[in-house]
């Protein structure tokens, strides 16, 4: 029996971080996905990208894959926690309608980045997904690899309170975790980034320190409250003008602003639900306007 | 006669749903067969993470032929009636026969229904089962509208050696399945259940969950033995893990012993709940050992080394988190957390956690007076600190260790054992089988916590309705009942509830307009109409499980007592008494007296609850009864005052013979009106005497 105490060193044969990312892009491009670049706005999860949220609605087929940088201000640890980051990457795949062989396709992607299913224990463990801010839910799993959660796998049932017909299958890879698993490192900052000497820490450690300080200490809360209000108003105005896409950007903005306010600790427990409710109302409004704009039946 | 084999292969079914799903599958299919008139020998259902399988043996190939005779209208009935009958029966005029009966001549139709092929019945039943399956949650997928727990991939359906023709939203039934997702993914054909089971086994799938469990238990035990530690069996976890793997391969992993300084409850929680690991213990000391057993779903080509290493790294990262919180939390004092309880809303209508804690503290101090050996200052201190761990880093991260962490942190800041234990125990008992606290300070705080919950939510009209009990008030009431009765605490419940409600007044303006008086009135009626009856109901449910008759509890509760210990003592004495000969006869005598009184009082429109004129007693039996009543009544009351319920029952039992003799010899409804009235008064005295002990009118039988 092998003693599994953590003495692992970086696996020299494993893919560097960026190679993994490129490999996933190529793999899903080969499956017919549109490869998008990250959305140019701050957001808490790749699901917020309109290529997922809005494209999951309506009858038209859609396949896309993209990297999305995610901002989670409350998860910032000034670069001192080996696994928690306020900025990290998700790799997001959306397949609509979800194909019958989606699990096989997903497992194929793991194989492509060097996870051997004959060596590692891959498991689909029940995890139902719900986003209160997007008014969305689905059923699926978290995918475990040797006990570590490496992806979220969801069949969307509703987005913005509307039934998804057809159903989209969503895959979300936590890229840093996956890379830590593949490379066998215990500290995210030790990840080999490019295979040519740069580590994840070289690229992002200072960013984590400064952004954590901003999120927790310096973000101007008066301005943020004003921003939140402004985004809400702007969104409503754009919805009236039947412009769901720019309206949805204001929804994304208000969601991130709320996350920043939350990190600053200025939103009480009771107010929290009310704020989430306000963002959800915007998201629902955008989804509804998007459906109308496209002339789809509700 | 043939055997049926069905397999529904899908993407991964949540472990917690598998057992019920296989039971439901069997139930739905066998019910459908029975409804079609089909018998069978044995039905057995199985579940794995990817499949539900069902085998039913010895089913006839056809449903029985049915010939049925149906009576139609009379021969002289209007033509329309006859047409309707023929349409309904599916027969023509020349197939009818006329037959004479007592009430006239009627048309009769003989309907012959030939049996149907069983395969048809199976196809229909399976389609209906799939479409109506009671999954707790189900989903659509792709562009279809069928719902299943996760996407349904294929259906295998064999009756005898033939595939049953069936197509559910494009999924056609066949005779193939697949093995283990990674070790044997190719499709293969099967011929019957035995073949199916064997080939699955060869394809690295153990079909029977019981066998998977046995395999896990055996291997886990052996691994632990080899490591020199003891495997800690956990039935719930075993069930869950057996639902996560088709081919269980337990592996032993280890973590750095330096994590052992973190409280073991947290280590266990992390391993068990987050990672589904079994924990191990040192064989000698019984202390947690730094080795765990994970159950993989794979015979890995390296013997599981990579899997064990990977799992070891995951648990190390998680334990590092836990250790970080433990160390962080210990840097401050538990009581330093108290101001933060202001930031937690307990319930929007019942204030913040800090308000709740203030109420609990006052209540615990008051309750301490009723609990033997309970120091009020300690009870107040424990209540004050009981919720302080909710804002600790550890409980924020691992909510399940609330209370447990509070105890550690309380000890760390030098609180007494009694206070620290009470912080840990104040959520208990969490159910009928949970351990009930017995240490005095723990009992006081646990009671205060639950009473504050009950009084608060009842006061704002958030009572449980039907199956909805979002604030777990039934559990809280059961907790109060268990804490009081199992510790023999003599508590005037109604008084305590009133006291607990006092600090709620500021919150109740919404529920009772009109100031303080209106609020008090609202509370009073709420308690009388809802909360005390709620306790009575919960007590009945709890005692029913212990075999106590609910009508006896009603009979004693009707006396208006709110001391649960006294109530149960009285119920116990009453129950024993009614099981005796004297008791059952007395009850019969009581019922007879009460019935006569009810009838006569109704007839006369007046009550006979009055004293007996001794001078007007004529027959020796009525005199004897009057004497016995006076004595028994006095004895019973005396005994009740001393809470000697057996003695009170014994006093009542002296009434049996005089009552029997009375009914034997004396005519109550005498012609002489005065005599009759006096005898009815005598009956009313029986009723009164017996009712001092319990309301006998509520006793059944």
Name of the top-level CATH class of the largest domain in chain B: Mainly Alpha
Q: CATH superfamily name of the largest domain in chain A?
A: Bira Bifunctional Protein, Domain 2
Q: Can you count the beta strands of chain A? A: 9
Number of domains of chain B: 5
Broad shape of chain B: flat
**Structural class of the helix and strand makeup of chain B?**
alpha+beta
What is the distance, rounded to the nearest whole angstrom, between the alpha carbons of the first and last residues of chain A? Answer: 58 Å
- Give the class of chain A from helix and strand content and strand pairing: alpha+beta
Over all CA atoms, what is the radius of gyration of chain A? Answer: 20 Å
Q: Give the fraction of residues assigned to helices of chain B.
A: 40-55%
Q: Please estimate the helix content of chain A.
A: 40-55%
What is the number of helical segments of chain A per DSSP (H or I, 4+ residues)? 8
Please identify the oligomeric state: heterodimer
- Put simply, the count of helices of chain B is 24
Average of pLDDT of chain A = 93
Subunit structure (chain B): Tetramer of two alpha and two beta subunits.
Family (chain B): Belongs to the class-II aminoacyl-tRNA synthetase family.
InterPro entries (chain B): DALR_anticod-bd, Gly-tRNA-synth_bsu, Gly-tRNA-synth_heterodimer
Keywords (chain B): Aminoacyl-tRNA synthetase, ATP-binding, Cytoplasm, Ligase, Nucleotide-binding, Protein biosynthesis
């Amino acid at each position: 029996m092998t003693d599994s105490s953590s003495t692992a060193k970086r696996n020299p044969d494993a893919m560097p971080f960026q190679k993994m990312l490129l490999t996933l892009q190529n793999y899903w491009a080969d499956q017919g996905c549109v490869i998008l670049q990250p959305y140019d706005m701050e957001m808490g999860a790749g699901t917020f990208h309109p290529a997922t949220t809005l494209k999951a609605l309506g009858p038209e087929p859609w396949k896309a894959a993209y990297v999305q940088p995610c901002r989670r201000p409350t998860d910032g640890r000034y670069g001192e926690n080996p696994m928690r980051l306020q900025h990290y990457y998700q790799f997001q795949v959306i397949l609509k309608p979800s194909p019958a062989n989606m699990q096989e396709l997903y497992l194929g992607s793991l194989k492509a980045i060097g996870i051997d299913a004959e060596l590692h224990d891959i498991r689909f463990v029940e995890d139902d997904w719900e986003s209160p801010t997007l008014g969305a839910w689905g059923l699926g799993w978290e995918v475990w690899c040797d006990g570590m959660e490496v992806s979220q796998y969801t069949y969307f049932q509703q987005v913005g309170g509307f039934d998804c017909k057809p159903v989209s299958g969503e895959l979300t890879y936590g890229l840093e975790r996956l890379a830590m698993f593949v490379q066998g490192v215990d500290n995210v900052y030790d990840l080999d980034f490019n295979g040519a000497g740069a580590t994840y820490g070289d690229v992002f450690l200072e960013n984590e320190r400064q952004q954590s300080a901003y999120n927790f200490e310096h973000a101007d809360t008066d301005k943020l409250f004003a921003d939140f209000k402004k985004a809400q108003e702007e969104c409503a105005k754009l919805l009236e003008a039947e412009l769901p896409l720019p309206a949805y950007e204001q929804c994304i903005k208000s969601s991130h602003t709320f996350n920043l306010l939350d990190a600053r600790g200025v939103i009480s427990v009771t107010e929290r639900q009310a704020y989430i409710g306000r963002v959800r109302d915007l998201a629902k409004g955008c989804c509804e306007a998007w459906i109308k704009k496209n002339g789809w039946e509700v | 006669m043939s055997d049926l084999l069905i397999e529904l292969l899908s993407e991964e079914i949540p472990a917690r749903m598998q057992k019920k799903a296989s039971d439901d599958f069997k139930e739905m299919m066998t019910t459908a067969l029975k409804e079609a008139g089909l018998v069978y020998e044995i039905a057995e259902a199985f579940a794995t993470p990817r499949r539900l399988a069902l085998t039913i043996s010895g089913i006839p190939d056809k449903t029985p032929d049915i010939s049925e005779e149906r009576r139609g209208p009379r021969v002289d009935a209007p033509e329309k009636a006859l047409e309707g009958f023929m349409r309904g029966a599916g027969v023509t005029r020349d197939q009818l026969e006329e037959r004479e009966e007592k009430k006239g001549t009627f048309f009769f139709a003989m309907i012959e229904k030939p049996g149907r092929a069983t395969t048809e019945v199976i196809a229909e039943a399976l389609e209906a089962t799939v479409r109506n399956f009671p999954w707790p949650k189900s989903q659509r997928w792709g562009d279809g509208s069928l719902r299943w727990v996760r996407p349904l991939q294929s259906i295998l359906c064999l009756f005898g050696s033939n595939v049953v023709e069936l197509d559910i939203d494009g999924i056609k039934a066949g005779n193939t399945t697949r093995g283990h997702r990674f070790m044997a993914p190719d499709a293969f054909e099967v011929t019957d259940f035995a073949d199916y089971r064997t080939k699955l086994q060869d394809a690295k799938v153990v079909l029977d969950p019981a066998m998977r469990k046995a395999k896990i238990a055996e291997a886990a035990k052996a691994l632990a033995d080899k490591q020199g530690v003891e495997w800690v069996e956990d039935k719930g976890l075993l069930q869950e893990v057996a639902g996560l793997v088709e081919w269980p391969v337990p592996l032993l992993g280890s973590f750095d012993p330096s994590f052992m300084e973190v409280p073991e409850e947290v280590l266990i929680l992390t391993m068990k709940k987050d990672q589904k690991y079994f924990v191990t213990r040192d064989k000698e000391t019984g202390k947690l050992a730094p080795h765990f057993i994970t159950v993989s779903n794979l015979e890995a080509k390296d013997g599981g080394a990579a899997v064990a290493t990977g799992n070891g790294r995951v648990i190390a990262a998680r334990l590092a988190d836990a250790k970080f919180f433990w160390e962080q939390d210990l840097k401050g004092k538990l009581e330093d957390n108290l101001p933060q309880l202001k930031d937690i809303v307990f319930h929007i209508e019942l204030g913040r956690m800090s308000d709740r804690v203030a109420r609990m503290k006052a209540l615990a101090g008051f309750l301490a007076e009723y609990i033997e050996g309970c120091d009020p200052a300690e009870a107040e201190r424990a209540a004050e600190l009981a919720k302080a761990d909710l804002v600790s880093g550890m409980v924020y991260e691992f909510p399940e260790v609330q209370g447990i962490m509070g105890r550690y942190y309380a000890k760390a800041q030098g609180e007494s054992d009694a206070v620290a234990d009470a912080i840990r125990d104040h959520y208990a008992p969490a159910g009928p089988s949970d351990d009930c606290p017995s240490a005095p300070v723990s009992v006081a705080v646990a009671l205060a916590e639950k009473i504050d919950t009950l009084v608060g939510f009842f006061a704002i009209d958030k009572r449980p309705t039907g199956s909805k009990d979002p604030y777990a008030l039934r559990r809280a009431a059961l907790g109060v009942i268990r804490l009081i009765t199992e510790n023999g605490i003599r508590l005037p419940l109604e008084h305590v509830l009133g006291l607990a409600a006092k600090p709620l007044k500021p919150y109740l303006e919404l529920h009772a307009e009109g100031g303080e008086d209106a609020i008090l009135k609202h509370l009073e009626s709420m308690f009388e109409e809802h909360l005390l009856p709620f306790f009575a109901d919960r007590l009945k449910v709890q005692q029913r499980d212990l075999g106590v008759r609910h009508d006896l509890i009603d009979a004693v509760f009707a006396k208006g007592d709110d001391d649960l210990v006294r109530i149960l003592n009285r119920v116990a004495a009453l129950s024993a008494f009614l099981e005796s000969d004297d008791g059952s006869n007395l009850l019969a005598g009581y019922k007879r007296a009460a019935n006569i009184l009810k009838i006569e009082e109704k007839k006369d429109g007046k009550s006979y609850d009055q004293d007996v004129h001794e001078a007007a007693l004529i027959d020796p039996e009525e005199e004897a009864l009057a004497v016995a009543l006076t004595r028994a009544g006095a004895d019973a009351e005396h005994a009740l005052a001393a809470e000697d319920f057996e003695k009170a029952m014994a006093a009542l039992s002296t009434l049996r013979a005089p009552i029997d003799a009375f009914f034997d010899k004396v005519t109550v409804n005498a012609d002489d009106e005065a005599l009759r009235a006096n005898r009815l008064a005598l009956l009313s005295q029986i009723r009164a005497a017996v009712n001092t002990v319990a309301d006998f009118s509520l006793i059944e039988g």
